[in-house]
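Marked as duplicate of an earlier ticket. Keeping the data here for the record.
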Amino acid sequence: MNMIGRDTVTQKLAQVLGKKTALDVVAKTMSEAGLEKLDCADDQLRFANALIPRGGLYEAVGRALKIQAILNGGHDEERITRV
C-alpha cells in the first residue's frame, strides 16, 4: 500500500525517515493503536499518542502530529477523562 502523498501523517514521517521506513512505522503504529485508517483528526491523534512513547525522533514527530490533530479538531481521550 502506497500512502505517501495521501495523508499528513505519512508525509511527515516520510520527510523525516524516508518512504519505506515511514510506511513500515505507519503500518506498525496503526496496528498497535487499533486503527484501520487515518481519515479524521481523532484517528490522527490516536496515532500520534501511539507514536510518542517510542521516544527520540518518533516522539518529536508524534508530538508535532498531535498538535496538528488537536488544531484540526481531534479529541484526546486522556484530556477528556481528566476534566
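See parent ticket for discussion. Helices lie at 8-17, 19-33, 41-51, 56-71, 77-82.
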